């Protein structure tokens, strides 16, 4: 299989189940669900431990994956899906919430640290590398002295929900751009916004 034939693995981070569905920590799932809708694809349970959907974004083959495990142990299912589809870390795009960005800001990068994000830490530990692509969705810092772990496990506020659909759509556009135009071109487009 040549590199051009190798699909991209788009991973959305979140926690499974309805209890967590509206949490800030689940924005990765929200973005992946929107992308699945664009593909007209349905998620199916996969032996990797992820729910997967397949299709093409802008002519590029993609595999969408949402780990069925909790966020802090998502690395195993992500590696399982990557191995099954023979996708290297350089063609893996992880969509996740980011405390260090203001609400709605989208930033794209390759590699780097985990910034205390347990989902990223699990993926890095399981893959043995930090060299995967990231779509960082800003959720802002918690108010006052609120524990960041408690903050990300709360639903978006009423005010935030008014703009959430727009920001999720933009994050999906950014993930699609990383796949279709490459990281640098996508950064030039979305970091300017």
Can you summarize this structure?
This protein has 193 residues and is an alpha/beta fold. The chain has helices at residues 27-39, 75-85, 118-127, 148-152, 158-181, 183-190, and strands spanning 8-12, 44-45, 50-57, 60-67, 92-98, 106-110, 133-138. It has a single domain (8-190), classed as Rossmann fold.
Per DSSP E runs of 2 or more residues, the count of β-strands stands at 7
CATH topology grouping: Rossmann fold
Strand order, largest beta sheet: 2-3-4-1-5-7-6
Q: Count the helices. How many? A: 6
What structural keywords apply?
Rossmann fold; single chain; 193 residues; globular; seven-stranded mixed sheet; 37% helix; alpha/beta; 6 helices
Structural description of this entry:
The chain is an alpha/beta fold. The chain has one domain (8-190): Peptidyl-tRNA hydrolase (Rossmann fold, 3-Layer(aba) Sandwich), CATH 3.40.50. 37% of the residues lie in helices and 21% in strands. Helix 1 (27-39) packs across helix 5, helix 2 packs across helix 3 (118-127) and helix 5 (158-181) runs antiparallel to helix 6 (183-190). The longest helix has 24 residues, at 158-181. The mean pLDDT is 94. It catalyses: an N-acyl-L-alpha-aminoacyl-tRNA + H2O = an N-acyl-L-amino acid + a tRNA + H(+).
């Amino acid at each position: 299989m040549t590199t051009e034939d190798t699909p991209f693995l788009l991973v959305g981070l979140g926690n499974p189940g309805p209890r967590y569905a509206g949490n800030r920590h689940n924005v990765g799932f929200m973005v992946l669900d929107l992308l699945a809708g664009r593909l007209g694809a349905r998620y199916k349970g996969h032996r990797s431990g992820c729910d997967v959907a397949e299709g093409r974004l802008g002519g590029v083959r993609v595999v969408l994956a949402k780990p069925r495990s909790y966020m802090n142990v998502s690395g195993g299912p992500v590696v399982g899906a990557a191995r099954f589809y023979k996708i290297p870390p350089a063609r893996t795009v992880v969509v996740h919430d980011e405390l260090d960005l203001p609400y709605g800001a989208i930033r794209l990068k390759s590699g780097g640290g985990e910034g205390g994000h347990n989902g990223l830490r699990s993926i890095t530990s399981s893959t043995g590398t930090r060299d995967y692509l990231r779509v960082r969705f800003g959720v802002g810092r918690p108010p006052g002295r609120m524990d960041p772990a408690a903050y990300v496990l709360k639903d978006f506020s009423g005010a935030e929900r008014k703009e959430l659909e727009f920001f999720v759509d933009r994050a999906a556009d950014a993930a699609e751009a990383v796949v279709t135009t490459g990281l640098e071109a996508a950064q030039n487009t979305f970091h300017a916004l």
